[in-house]
Amino acid sequence: MADAITSLVDAVQIFATSAEQSGILATAWLQNMMTNKMARKASRTMTKT
Fold this sequence. Notes:
Layout: H1 2-17, H2 19-48
């Protein structure tokens, strides 16, 4: 368990060192999530009609 926490902390530190890059990744991830949600809603709406 301690190993998992250590590697998680390492990952967070690596991620935090490139704040700009992580910001870009977070933005892309959020946009992807939104697009997926909208696509799912749209397909559900289409199947209803």
